[in-house]
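Changelog-linked ticket: copper (II) ion example.
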Amino acid sequence: MQHSVDLHAVHAAPSKKFIDVMPNEEGEFTYMADTPGVFMYHCGTQPVLLHIGNGMYGMIIVEPKDGYPGDASVDREYTLVQSEWYKENDYDAMLGEAPEYVVFNGSDFALSKHPLLAKPGERIRLYVVNAGPNEVSSFHVVGTILDRVFADGNPANVQRGLQTALIPAGGGAVVEFTVLEEGDYPIVTHQFKDAAKGAVAVLRVTKDGTDHGGMPMGH
Ligand SMILES: [Cu+2]
């Protein structure tokens, strides 16, 4: 069937650029990546809900031309995409806003089993997109404070000292925080019905920044 692409990082006429492409055909357009941010892209073919609900989305990071303020103080960067899983092609389920799973990076609890890693005292930056399609993300890191949040990843939109960052469906953020002590720091959406469905990652902070307690990667 036909699909298309809607890039949130773009100034473009959707009726000209985000158009359907049939199987075995190609489409192409160019754009200036001149607005910094963390953007969603997704299939824009009707019904859009069905195409996003079936998994057709991703993240674009447009870094500011001169970097983010304080780039040099950031020790580690990770990317997280929150999204929902519905039974494939079950449009009624998608309309009913009852996802079976809510996940980070496409898999329930995978980032709990294979934690993100850091060392004590390090400053962490996360690039986050909430692909939805239906749920808001109340993005929260247990055991720390988001000392800088750039709404939609634009350095002009700086907020300080947030406990939870609101990321709408189809929105993004850059969040930065520091971890002082060794231990496991859950990363969740504070809509806990969604965290219970899989949207939990773990940042494991160890002396040498390796994963002592978890399974080796690739197992
Ligand atoms: Cu599609």
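Closing comment: Example verified and attached. The pocket of copper (II) ion is lined by residues 3, 43, 45, 51, 56 (CB under 6 Å). The helical segments are 14-17, 48-53, 91-95, 110-113, 192-195.
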